[in-house]
C-alpha cells in the first residue's frame, strides 16, 4: 500500500496535465461532450504548452481544420489537454498514418508534457458511424480505415463512445412501440453493427459507452460523464496514473472519493 501511495505521489509530481486524443467524425458532438466533461459552456482554446498560456480562440470557421499536434483545452479545467484528430471518413490513408504516427511518437516520449494517456473514439449514433466518438448510423457501419485502426498494433487503450443515441432512436422508431422499446432497438443496432464487429478485431476498444441528450442542460449528462470517467480510469494499467486521471477531473468529487477509498 505504501508503495502505491509513493507511486501516486511521484506521478502527481511529474505530471501536471492529462492528455487525451479524441478521434471523431464530423458532427459527432465532440465539442459538447468535452464541454460536459469539463463542466463548462465555454469554447475550447488552443493551448501553448511551452508558455502555458492561452493565445488564440478556436474560430468557428476553423473547426473543420484539425491539427493533431495542436492541443486545446477549456479554461475551466486546465489539467485536461485534448488533441483532435481528423476522422477517417474521406478514406484518405494519410489520415490513418497521421494518427498512428502521433500515437507512436507520444508512446516513445519521456517528456511528461508530450505523453499521451488516453484515446477517446467518438462515433455519432446516427448511423453515420464515428474519447473514438461514433455517431452510429446503421447505413454506414465501420469504414475501412476504422477497421484497419483496430487491426493494427498501437500503443494505448481506446474507449469507444457512441454519441447522439437519441438520433439513432429516431432512425429505428416504430409506431406503436414505447420509448423504451425504441431505445432498446437502437442499443441492439449498436451492438450488432458496431460493438460485436469491433470486438472481433485484433486490438478492440477497451470499453464502450453510449451517450444521449448531452446537449440538453436539464439532462443526465453528468451521470454519463461520470460513467465515461470511470471506464477511462479502469482502462488505465498504471494505478498511480489512474488516480491522477480521476483527481484532475473536477466535476465528480464523489468519484474521486470512491477511487480513493477503493485504493
From TrEMBL:
It comes from the Eukaryota. This is G domain-containing protein.
